[in-house]
């Protein structure tokens, strides 16, 4: 599809995040398994369940826009997840691996946050108010996941300093 209008750009970006969410969903179980701290495991598992709901919301958005849900290969998310997989293969120290996975997970969250922020702004601009609420619901979950990951990273750092 060639992008000519703002509508096209919006649709293409929606496909990008749809692809990204589905890709994240396939990567999260492996990360949950590899995480050694209980808090990290829990946050990743909760976010895996949230991500399933996010995919459903995106499918609802496609429906509202009378489009069939289709993804568009997102190189950015593939790169971030490939990096996480490298860490999972290479890093032996469980605490270092947790730190690496938190870093990758936060890179994912920040990517999603920018995408949803942009999509919300464009939806408003295009008068597609009906899709703003589900986009905003996904954005809130990404922000919350990012915040929880920061808290885990800081707690781990404090523990290391105290040790
Ligand atoms: Fe997400
Ligand atoms: Fe996320």
Structural summary, described in words:
It is built from five helices and no strands. By secondary structure, the chain is mainly α. The protein is elongated. It is 83% helix and 0% strand. The mean pLDDT is 96. The chain binds fe (ii) ion (2 copies). One fe (ii) ion binds next to α1 and α2.
Please outline what is shown here:
With 163 residues, the chain is mainly alpha-helical. Helices cover 83% and strands 0% of the residues.
Key traits:
163 residues; mainly alpha; 5 helices; 83% helix; binds fe (ii) ion
Shape: elongated
Low-confidence stretches: none
SSE sequence, one letter per element: HHHHH
Radius of gyration: 17 Å
Percent strand: under 5%
What is the typical, i.e. mean, pLDDT?
96
**Secondary structural class:** mainly alpha
How many individual helices? 5
Total strand count, please? 0
Helical content (DSSP H or I, runs of 4+)? over 70%
**What is the end-to-end distance?**
56 Å
Write the layout of secondary structure elements.
Layout: H1 6-34, H2 38-64, H3 75-90, H4 94-125, H5 132-162
One fe (ii) ion is lined by residues 21, 24, 51, 54, 112, 142.
